[in-house]
Each structure stands twice: as C-alpha cells, then as structure tokens.
C-alpha cells in the first residue's frame, strides 16, 4: 500500500455504456495502491444515464464523490473542477474509457516522491488519420509558441502533487487544459517525469475529441492564452 493520499478523478460526458464496468476497474486499481484515497467523478452535463449510474455508485461506495455540471462546460472545465475539489496529496486523472492499464498506478506513486508532475505517453498510438493530423498540428503549435517539448501532451494519464498544483492557475475550457497544465508547471519550476504507457483503444461509446469544431476551439484557446500571457513578454 502507498503511504501518500490519492485523489483519482475522471471527467465524464455521456459515458453510460461503460461506467459500471470501468468504474469497478478504477475502484479495484486504486484500492491496491492507496489506503487514503477518494474517487471523484466530474459529470460535465451528461444527457444520457451517466449521472444516474454515478449516483448509484456513490450510494454503495462512500469513497466515490460526484461533482456535477448542470450543462456541458467542456473538458478543460471538467478537469478544473476535479483539481479544485481534490482533497488528497496526490491528484491523478484519466478518462472514463480507461486509455491505459491502471495497473501502472503502482509505478506512478513511487515516482511522485521525486517529481511534481508525471505524464504518461503512448508507446503504441492508434490514431485515425484525422486524429493524427490534429495531434501533430497541436504539438507543433505548442512547441512553436511555448517551447513545450514532451512526447505526448494530451494523453489523459497524469498525476500532480497538491503543492505543485497550488502554484498553477488553470483557465482552459477545452482540451488545451493538458497543455496549459504542462506550460504552467514548467513556468513555475515544477519537475516533470514522462512515463511510457501502453494505450488501450476505446471499446465502447464515442470519443468527444474527433470533431473539427473541437479542434478549432482548442486552437483558438491556445492562441488567446499565448496573446494574454506570452505576447507581452516579447514586447
């Protein structure tokens, strides 16, 4: 059992099909690595039966807590709610489709003794052509604007210490939240560890990150962040 306390949180939007099976996997994995823990589910305005299923889990398992957004506010807003409601020393997040084997949590917690932030990177990406293009353009944009040089910016397998999180101000509402977290961590002198992770392809449900509208909203937020925080430094 790990000695440090752990918040494990997951953003959810219309994931009714996979909640029962995957939440059971989360509970089993977290119980193996931590004695003092909580599991937060951030329901970002789901319109299917996700909220009801999560409430049922909360009733039968007191380590699970539901944070609700009455309307869909976006992935970044869901992560910010997770961070702001986390009460433990280490804060880990992933997605409800469980894109990585949670057995790797046993590697994460020991590494957090030496680092402020741990990020997983996929060693077997299985992107569609469209997602690969979006990924490459996003990575190039963040490298050009912020000199952000990590292997995998947007993979949802990250852990941060509470002390490091207190130094960081997150504002993103889109998927840029992952990049903003890394940029702000580096700006504030936080140490980052990258961990290779075997990617698990989604088996059920539909990803909410494939659309052109989502990609454009993310790019717009990246540019606005740069204009607000970095452009003045160049003048």
Which key phrases capture this entry?
single chain; 235 residues; alpha/beta; seven-stranded mixed β-sheet; 9 helices; globular
Indicate the topology.
Elements: E1 6-12, H1 19-33, E2 37-44, H2 50-60, E3 64-69, H3 75-85, E4 90-94, H4 105-111, E5 117-122, H5 129-146, E6 157-161, H6 162-165, H7 177-187, E7 192-197, H8 212-229, H9 231-234
Helix pairs in contact: 5-8
Question: What is the overall shape?
Answer: globular
Structural class, please? alpha/beta
Strand order of the largest sheet: 3-2-1-4-6-5-7
Number of helices: 9
Descriptive overview:
The protein has 9 helices and 7 strands. Strands 3-2-1-4-6-5-7 form a 7-stranded mixed beta sheet, with helices on both faces. Helix 5 runs parallel beside helix 8. The N and C termini lie far apart (51 Å). The model has no long low-confidence stretch (mean pLDDT 91).
Quick description:
With 235 residues, this protein is an alpha/beta fold. The chain is built from nine helices and seven strands; from the N terminus they run βαβαβαβαβαβααβαα.
């Amino acid at each position: 059992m790990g000695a440090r306390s752990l918040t494990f949180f997951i953003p959810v939007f219309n994931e009714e099909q996979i909640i029962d099976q995957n939440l059971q996997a989360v509970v089993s994995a977290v119980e193996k690595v931590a004695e003092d823990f909580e599991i937060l589910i951030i329901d970002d305005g789901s319109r299917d039966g996700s909220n009801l299923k999560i409430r049922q889990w909360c009733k039968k398992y007191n380590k699970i807590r539901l944070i609700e957004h009455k309307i869909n506010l976006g992935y970044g807003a869901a992560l910010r709610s997770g961070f702001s409601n986390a009460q433990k020393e280490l804060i880990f997040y992933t997605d409800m489709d469980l894109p990585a084997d949670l057995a790797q949590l046993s590697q994460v917690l020991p590494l957090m003794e030496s680092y402020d932030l741990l990020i997983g990177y996929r060693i077997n990406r299985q992107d569609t052509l469209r997602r690969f293009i979006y990924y490459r353009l996003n990575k190039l944009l963040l490298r050009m604007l912020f000199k952000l040089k990590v292997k995998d910016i947007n993979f949802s397998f990250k852990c941060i210490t509470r002390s490091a999180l207190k130094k960081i101000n997150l504002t993103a509402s889109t998927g840029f939240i992952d990049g903003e977290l890394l940029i702000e961590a580096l700006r504030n002198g936080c140490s980052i560890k990258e961990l290779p992770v075997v990617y698990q392809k989604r088996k059920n449900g539909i990803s909410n990150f494939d659309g052109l509208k989502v990609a454009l909203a993310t790019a717009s937020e990246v540019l606005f962040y740069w204009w607000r925080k970095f452009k003045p430094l160049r003048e």
